Amino acid sequence: MPDAWAVGVVLIPFFIWRERNSRLFEAIERQPAASFHALLSSIKEISFSFKRPVRNQADLLCARLLHIPILPCPRQVIQEVWWSRPLVGWVKLNSDGCSLGNPGRAGAGGILRDVTAIPIGAFGIFLGISSNILAEFSAVLHGILLAKEKGVTCLWIECDSTAVWMAFQGRSIPWQTFYLLSRPDGSIKLYEFVVILGAFTVVLAQIPSFHSLRHINLLSLILCLTYSICATAASVYIGNSNKGPPKDYSVQGNPDNRIFNAFNGIAIIATAYGNGMIPEIQATIAPPVKGKMFKGLCVCYVVVIITFFGVSISGYWAFGNQAAGTLLTNFFSNGEPLVPKWFLYIINALTFIQVAPVGLVYLQPTNEILERMFADPQKGEFSKRNVVPRLISRSISIAMATLIAAMLPFFGDINGVIGAFGFIPLDFVLPVIFYNITFRPTKLSPIFWLNTFIATVFSVVAVISAVAAVRQITLDAGTYRLFANV
């Protein structure tokens, strides 16, 4: 109906002007009723192509008089929206930015509130001609500066821009980055990407045995080295240019948080070293396994040192304490990539392809248990008797893991828990204990007491790291919801 009203507003002055000219210059006088009916016919003819919902009684009456087709008004859906309080001691920043035209006249605003919901600061700014993504980032950045002026030390940022979350949280995953690079304002959520990866893993998981993964493991090694070289080169490039953020190497947070975060970081680092666990333990066993596994252990740690320390040191040098848990998210600034987009596509593709074989390796223990329960060793590996149970059991196990991952996206926190409860004891405690048991050095020898000291120290580290990891999950649980789009 707004279109019909607009047509009437245009046609009425036109008909009045035409009638005036007819009487003045052509000496033709029409009856007012005839002119009125001609006007209604024109409105009806033009408005016939407009089909709009009727929203009030006046529109309905006019539409019926003019015989204009109408659509029923869509049912209004009431959606409950609420503001959740931040944790005690925290301040929440709610911000938003928009651009009329994208790019066009843009503005940004935000408000700071504490746990009592009392506003402690607010702002609204005009940004001139800008884009939506820059307006969103400007809103968050101005909010952070305002929080700093107010003396806020624990800030909880809440906004509706996926690209802003990707840049500030450092929790994006490679296939999500592809989507955000091509569509910064896309609507696909994180848990939907997790489901996509789960479906991809279900297909790869049907590889029947561990031995058939040896070529995939070689490919994984090549991809890992290539990714590390690319990430290190990008960090060095950004660090040497003026594109990166100002370097700040200070340690942030209060003393308690610093201590717990340090031990949680140790647990995460232990998880990164976890690939050397099996050859490290087997290197302490008697020959001939010892010799082969020791060589494998040396190769393993050379690769880990090159990949892990190369990326972590260059990343910390380039970005300081702004370095994110996923370094790739630091390659963006204000929503714009600091390196060419094609480079980001390549490096994220390497990461994505790398994740798949690593996941398959860690699935092998579960697959072996399922094979023993449901497979028939008397039948062939590709027989219907074994293929069907393998397909069903592995698909169900991956579906359950995918559901949990989508519901609880604590990626970094889970690494801390795994490192504290699993990899620190298995990587740093058990090997030295096995050495003392296997080779039985005398209690007067330095090696015995060195191994005992290492086992004791890292046992204490494991306990404290476990507490820190569980504490971090507890803190993050207050900001997460099931199937959260973090």
What report would you give on this structure?
The chain has 486 residues and is an alpha+beta fold. The two termini are 42 Å apart. The strands form two sheets. A four-stranded mixed sheet has the order 3-2-1-4, covered by helices on one side. β1 (91-100) and β2 (104-113) form a beta hairpin. It folds into three domains: 2-66, no CATH class; 91-160, Ribonuclease H-like superfamily/Ribonuclease H (Nucleotidyltransferase, domain 5, 2-Layer Sandwich), CATH 3.30.420.10; 191-477, no CATH class. 62% of the residues lie in helices and 8% in strands. The protein has helices spanning 2-25, 32-47, 57-66, 132-149, 162-169, 174-182, 190-204, 214-240, 255-272, 277-282, 289-319, 341-374, 384-407, 411-439, 446-477; strands spanning 91-100, 104-113, 119-130, 155-158, 332-333, 336-337.
List keywords for this structure.
486 residues, Nucleotidyltransferase, domain 5, 3 domains, 15 helices, 62% helix, elongated
Q: Give the quaternary arrangement of the chains.
A: single chain
Radius of gyration based on Cα positions: 32 Å
Q: Main sheet: which strands, in order across?
A: 3-2-1-4
- What does the largest sheet look like? 4 strands, mixed
Total domain count: 3
The dominant shape is elongated
Give the number of helices. 15
Write down how many β-strands occur, each being a DSSP E stretch of 2 or more residues.
6
Residue stretches low in confidence (pLDDT < 50, at least 5 long) are: none
Please indicate the percent range of residues in DSSP E strands (runs of 2 or more): 5-15%
Alpha-beta content class: alpha+beta
In sequence order, what are the helices and strands, one letter per element? HHHEEEHEHHHHHHHEEHHHH
Rounded average pLDDT: 75
Residues in helices, as a percent range? 55-70%
How far is the N terminus from the C terminus? 42 Å
